[in-house]
Every structure is written in structure tokens, then in C-alpha cells.
């Protein structure tokens, strides 16, 4: 009896199913479950494909359900076959199928299991049931499976109804993929990549949920931060020779367009009286060593990310939730919840043409006149450069919507809003893939993952088998490369580009003060600084304001962003750096000498090279022309390929239901320069052609009026009769 219980306990794991690209997706079964699980032409394990429609086919209650019965049971046996002992493989197929169904049932979430499964999965019943009496038990189990699948479908997936011919994408990302309506949707789980053998790239200490290295197998992140940031191994905080501050700032804005991991509040992980003080599912504090130059020794508060628990098809190991839409859809501007979008749409602008005020906002107010800004993403006030870019695109939307309304007075407010939103999203996508991203990854990565847009015309690349959901590993390490680009000072420049004010970065985090003060009169001088001054070089060094004084005003003595990034990676079960090198087809490091001059420092804290965290390992790599190194390029390339190919509404699409006209698309491609948008909305007179690169002979400064602008007459609706422009009609967020 004990052996049976041990066997079932050992095998009580939810089976993960990979798509044909070898990337992890979690949904419901589709296709032939008996198909050969061989490698496809990509060289990755094909596994089984998935389709959210399949459970509907399994939920029949009439005579045709017998087909579904065989489907479920045989599928369960095929999945469990790899776990059978040699003795069990000799048992009858009926016995194995029964046991496989039981294992499947036991993997369902508790709220389904307790209601339906418990009476039929008692280990004692399994142990004593005879081969002769199996048939009736077998039928009961199958009926139970059908009930559970039907319940799960109605609770979680049936409610997603997707009209097929929608011209405009949803706000929350749902129904972008008609076969898999929840892919990329706000509030769903972040995804895991899979290795060449189909195994998910996940590394929890217990295989399920405990952070990698828990409790103390790995060095404390602050120690790693100290040895990796040793100024003696500099040069320290070098300026980039190519990229401007706006390249750093746009990267942060973009991050807030596709990922927000939920971090709960209300706990004190360093207070022994807190009920979760010793609960590793909630608290994972850092342990600061004696002798640290900045922080007192002992416990450093850290709360683990909120787990994704809503979907019954999640794997047996912990996943984290993405609160916002994964698609590149300007959700930083429009939000990822319909109610938020509607709340942002107001008829009048605000003093200084700034962002509206958030009711009950919790930003840092450095003066009595500061107001917490309200925008599509609640993190808009984390840094002054972030608030500036939010303001930039709000003003751009208002500008375009006003002109579209003037051109087409017969359009409803809703149509003006949605058509403007389509244009803004297209601009963001084009700028991202053709101006910003080529300065993040190297040219080979851009080509390998088909990241460049076509110069002209349509490029229908959509593939509904590609899940555009944000990857856990991507957001937790590679995309945080930009933290090393952040400069120590945020400056203001006069018209002649001379510096008039400098502000320490740590003094203005979480506050909108710099760009709000004097009713927004400093917006132009701040934007000159971002547009022309160099960012810091992409490397392993973070400025003092981030590594020693992060949020020191609100939570003294502050924190260390470098340490937090490492700890968050362990919290999410992200595998070590060497595992990612192997995944990307790179040579695994065999000794600390492979890290060059930093190897001896890393050897002081890590026991082996296989323990090194992805964040620090990736930052220590050097890429082409100052871009990120090969490991980060690999993961970033995969993610942006998925963002593009998995987006049904991709701006280059030729789909007749929502495509731009060929002339409209070509105008977007030829005029979508962030420099022009900057000039138009921030009152600049001159700027270099590519705002992401510092001015040079190859990137000369031009008068703003000479930069091409989008031809909105291409959106002129010929069916509209000319009418008098009606002002203040409230057709968009802020003054749209």
C-alpha cells in the first residue's frame, strides 16, 4: 500500500506541453495525441500542439462522447507511459489507462479536485480494485474527467468570446489570437522557454516553488553586487559612444508596455511578528553581511512575486502573473483594462498640457504643488524620464486625434479614438523594431529572428501557433540590461544645449517633480538632455544612486537595484547563466577564467561557474558595437520575434479586416521618427535625425520643420461631408 502511495505521489506532476517552436505554452490539448514526439525542422522538440477550443470537443454529454472518452484515456496513458516502471508496463493497457487518468485527475487544482475527484482517486481503492471490476470504475472516472474539463472550460475559457472581424485590438490583449484567446492577455501567466529536449527552463530549488538556491546555497545578492561592481575592475560608469539617454528611457517605457509582475504589499519580511516572516512562499529577504559599506548587516526586506493561480492548466511548478497585455500595443498609454482606458478619456486638457491627476496616488511629492500623474501604466512616476515619455505620447495622441477629427467631422468620438490608437501603436512598433532594437541586439540577431520591418509595403508574418505572451526569463534578466545605462545625473539644457541644472537620479525617483514644476515649463529643457546626452555604456556597472541609494527617501537607507534583480531571478526560478548559454547554442563556461578579469571576483562568492546568475553573467558579456552580449541577444531575439509574429494586429499586416492602406503604411514607415514626435510635442527647434544615437556627421542635427511628418490626409474619409469642427467633444484620453 505504501509503495502505491509513493508511486502516485512521485508522479503527481502536471505534464507540460511544448509548441512546435520548443517554447512553453500552457493550454489545452489538440491534435493527434499519439503522434510521434520527434524533432521538427527547427531542431526543437515538437511535442504536442495546443488549442483552447479542444476542451469543447471533450465536453459532450451525448453518445458521441465515447470518442472523447477514448481520446482522454489513451492520451493520459501516452503521457504517463514515460513514468511507468518496468513492472507496470507489463500490466494490461486498461490498468495503465485507469492509473493514468487517476494521475491526471490528481493534478487538477484543489477546487476542482475536492468537488469531483476525491471519491475516485483514493489510493486504497486503486490498490484493491480488481481487473475484473475495472470497467464500471473506468466509466465513472471518464465521466468525472468530462465533468471537470467542462467545468474548467466554462469557468476559465468559455467566457472569452471573440468576434472574428474586429477592426481594433482589445485593450487587455484578449482575442488577439482567435484560437488561443488568452494568449498575451493581461492577468495571465508569464511563459517559460523550453530546451531542445522539451524541458521547461525553470530552476526551483525543490522543483516546484522554492527560490533557486533557497535558503542559502547561493551567495547573497548584495555580495555578488559588490564583487561584480568593483570599480577597480573598471573603467567605471563609462558613457556610451553611440546611444543617447533617450535610448535608455524608451527601453524603460517599452518594458512597461509588455510586462508588469505583481508584487504584493502589506508584509514585513524582516519582522518576526509578521505572520509570513518564515513563510518562503511569501518572503525571501536578502541577508546583508557584516562590513557592508552602505547597508547595516542582517535582514533586507524582499517579498516574492504574486503567483499565477487562476488557470487550471498551469504547470505543477510556480508561475508568475503578468498584470498587463504582453503585446506591443502602447498599453503604457491606453492601459490594459477597459475601465482604465475609459477613465483616461476626458474632454479637456490639464494645466500645462500635463497628465491628469491620479486620485489617491502614492508618488513622492517633493513640493506642495506636485500631483501624482494618472496614465495607462501606474509606474509612470518611477523616474523623470519615464514621466516625460508618457507625456510625449499623450500629446502625440491628442495632436493626431484633433487633426483626424478635423479631416473627418462625421466620425464618431469612438472612431477618432480608435483610429488614432491604431496609428500610435503602429508608430511604437515601427520605432521599436527599426530604430531602437538594432541598438540593443546585434545585426545577426535582428536577421536571425526576422526583426527588421520591410522598407515598404505589407509583411504578413502572423502565425497563430506562436504565443506572444511575455517570457519569464526575458523580463527578469535580459531586459534589465538598461539599468546599467541610467546616468547618475538628470540634466536640463538650454536652447544652445548648455547644461543649466543637474539633478541626482536618486533624489527624483518615484517623483514627477522635475517635469511637473512650474506648470511643465521645464519639459523642453529636460527633453533636450534625454535627446542629446549619452547614456552610460551597457555593462555590469550601475551608478551609486541605483546600487546604494535606490528609493532612499521613501525607504531609508535605500536599496540596491543590482541585488534586487538577482534576487527576483531566483524568486522566479530562472536557471543559471550557464544553462542559458547551453540553451542558446553557446559554449558553456567551464571555469571562472572564462569571465575574464571578473572571474577571480566571482570565484570569491560562487562555488562553481554553474551557479552564476543569469543577470550578472549576461551583463559581463560584450556585444557588437556596445550592444548586449550573445546570451541576452538570444533571449531578447526570441521574445521580440514572438511579439511580432504572434501579433495578429501587427502593423504591417495585410489582413483586410484591419490593415492600413498601402499608402498609409508607407507613410508610417517613412515618417515614424521619434525625433519628429519629440520636436512636435516638446517645442524643440532642432534635433538629430535619430534620437537614439548621439549627434554626429552620420546623424546630423536638423531643423525640426525639415523632418518628415505623417500624412494624415491619407486617412481622409471621402464619405464624410465637410462640417464645422466641434471642439471639446471628448474623443480620447486627456484632450483627445
From TrEMBL:
Residues 28-51 are annotated as: Disordered. It is an enzyme of class 1 (oxidoreductase). The keyword Metal-binding applies. One of its GO terms (biological process) is response to oxidative stress. GO terms for molecular function: heme binding; lactoperoxidase activity; metal ion binding. Pfam families: An_peroxidase. Heme b binds at residue 483. It comes from the Eukaryota. Its EC number is 1.11.1.7. PROSITE patterns: PEROXIDASE_3. Keywords: Heme, Iron, Metal-binding, Oxidoreductase, Peroxidase. InterPro entries: Haem_peroxidase_animal, Haem_peroxidase_sf, Haem_peroxidase_sf_animal. PANTHER family: LD42267P, OXIDASE/PEROXIDASE. This is PXDN. It comes from Mytilus coruscus.
Amino acid at each position: 500500500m505504501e509503495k502505491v502511495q509513493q508511486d502516485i505521489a512521485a508522479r503527481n506532476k502536471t505534464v507540460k506541453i511544448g509548441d512546435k517552436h520548443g517554447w512553453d505554452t500552457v493550454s489545452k490539448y489538440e491534435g493527434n495525441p499519439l503522434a510521434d514526439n520527434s524533432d521538427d525542422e527547427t531542431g526543437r522538440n515538437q511535442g504536442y500542439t495546443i488549442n483552447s477550443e479542444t476542451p469543447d470537443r471533450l465536453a459532450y454529454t451525448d453518445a458521441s462522447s465515447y470518442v472523447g472518452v477514448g481520446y482522454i484515456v489513451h492520451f493520459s496513458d501516452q503521457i504517463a507511459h514515460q513514468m511507468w516502471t518496468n513492472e507496470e508496463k507489463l500490466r494490461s493497457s486498461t490498468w495503465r489507462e485507469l492509473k493514468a487518468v487517476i494521475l491526471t485527475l490528481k493534478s487538477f487544482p484543489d477546487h476542482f479536485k475536492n468537488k469531483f475527484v476525491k471519491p475516485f482517486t483514493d489510493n486504497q481503492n486503486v490498490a484493491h480494485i480488481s481487473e475484473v471490476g475495472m470497467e464500471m470504475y473506468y466509466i465513472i472516472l471518464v465521466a468525472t474527467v468530462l465533468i471537470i474539463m467542462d467545468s474548467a472550460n466554462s469557468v476559465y475559457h468559455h467566457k472569452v468570446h471573440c468576434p472574428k472581424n474586429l477592426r481594433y485590438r482589445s485593450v487587455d490583449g484578449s482575442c488577439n489570437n482567435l484560437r488561443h484567446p488568452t494568449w498575451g492577455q493581461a492577468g495571465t501567466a508569464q511563459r517559460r522557454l523550453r530546451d531542445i529536449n522539451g524541458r521547461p527552463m525553470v530552476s526551483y530549488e525543490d522543483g516546484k516553488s522554492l527560490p533557486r538556491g533557497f535558503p542559502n546555497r547561493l551567495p547573497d545578492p548584495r555580495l555578488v553586487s559588490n564583487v561584480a561592481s568593483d570599480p577597480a575592475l573598471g573603467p567605471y560608469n563609462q558613457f556610451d559612444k553611440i546611444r543617447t539617454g533617450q535610448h535608455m528611457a524608451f527601453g524603460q517605457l517599452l518594458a512597461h508596455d509588455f510586462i508588469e509582475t505583481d508584487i504584493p504589499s502589506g508584509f514585513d519580511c524582516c519582522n518576526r511578528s509578521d505572520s509570513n516572516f518564515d513563510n518562503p512562499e511569501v518572503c525571501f529577504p536578502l541577508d546583508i553581511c557584516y562590513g557592508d559599506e552602505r547597508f547595516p548587516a542582517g535582514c533586507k526586506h524582499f517579498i516574492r512575486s504574486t503567483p499565477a493561480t487562476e488557470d487550471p492548466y498551469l504547470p505543477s511548478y510556480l508561475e508568475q502573473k503578468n498584470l498587463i497585455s504582453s503585446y506591443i500595443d502602447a498599453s503604457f498609454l491606453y492601459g490594459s483594462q477597459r475601465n482604465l482606458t475609459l477613465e483616461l478619456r476626458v474632454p479637456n486638457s490639464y494645466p500645462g498640457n500635463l497628465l491628469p491627476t491620479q486620485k489617491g496616488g502614492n508618488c513622492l511629492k517633493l513640493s506642495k504643488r506636485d500631483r501624482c500623474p494618472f496614465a495607462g501604466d501606474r509606474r509612470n512616476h518611477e523616474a523623470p524620464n519615464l514621466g516625460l515619455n508618457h507625456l510625449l505620447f499623450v500629446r502625440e495622441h491628442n495632436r493626431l486625434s484633433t487633426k483626424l477629427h478635423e479631416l473627418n467631422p462625421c466620425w464618431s468620438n469612438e472612431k477618432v479614438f480608435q483610429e488614432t490608437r491604431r496609428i500610435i501603436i503602429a508608430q511604437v512598433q515601427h520605432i521599436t523594431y527599426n530604430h531602437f532594437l538594432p541598438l540593443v541586439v546585434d545585426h545577426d540577431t535582428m536577421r536571425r529572428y526576422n526583426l527588421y520591418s520591410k522598407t515598404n509595403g505589407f509583411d504578413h508574418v502572423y502565425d497563430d501557433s506562436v504565443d506572444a505572451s511575455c517570457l519569464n526569463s526575458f523580463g527578469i534578466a535580459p531586459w534589465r540590461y538598461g539599468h546599467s545605462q541610467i546616468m547618475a545625473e538628470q540634466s536640463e539644457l538650454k536652447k544652445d544645449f548648455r547644461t543649466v541644472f543637474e539633478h541626482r537620479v536618486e533624489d527624483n525617483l518615484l517623483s514627477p517633480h522635475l517635469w511637473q514644476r512650474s506648470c511643465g515649463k521645464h519639459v523642453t529643457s529636460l527633453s533636450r538632455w534625454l535627446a542629446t546626452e549619452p547614456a552610460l555604456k551597457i555593462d555590469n556597472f550601475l551608478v551609486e544612486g541605483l546600487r546604494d541609494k535606490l528609493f532612499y527617501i521613501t525607504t531609508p537607507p535605500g536599496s540596491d537595484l543590482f541585488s534586487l534583480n538577482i534576487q527576483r531571478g531566483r524568486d522566479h526560478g530562472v536557471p543559471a547563466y550557464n544553462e542559458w548559454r547551453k540553451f542558446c547554442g553557446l559554449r558553456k563556461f567551464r571555469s571562472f577564467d572564462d569571465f575574464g578579469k571578473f572571474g577571480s571576483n566571482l570565484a570569491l562568492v560562487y562555488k562553481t561557474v554553474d551557479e552564476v546568475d543569469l543577470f550578472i553573467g549576461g551583463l559581463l558579456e560584450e556585444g557588437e558595437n556596445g550592444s548586449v552580449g550573445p546570451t541576452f541577444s538570444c533571449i531578447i531575439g526570441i521574445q521580440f520575434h514572438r511579439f511580432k509574429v504572434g501579433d495578429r494586429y501587427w502593423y504591417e499586416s495585410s489582413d483586410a479586416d484591419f490593415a492600413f492602406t498601402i499608402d498609409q503604411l508607407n507613410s508610417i514607415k517613412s515618417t515614424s521618427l521619434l525625433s519628429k514626435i519629440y520636436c512636435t510635442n516638446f517645442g524643440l527647434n532642432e534635433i538629430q535625425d535619430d534620437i537614439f544615437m548621439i549627434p554626429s556627421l552620420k546623424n546630423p542635427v536638423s531643423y525640426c520643420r525639415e523632418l518628415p511628418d505623417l500624412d494624415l490626409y491619407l486617412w481622409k474619409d471621402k464619405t464624410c461631408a465637410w462640417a464645422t469642427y466641434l471642439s471639446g467633444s471628448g474623443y480620447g484620453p486627456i484632450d483627445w
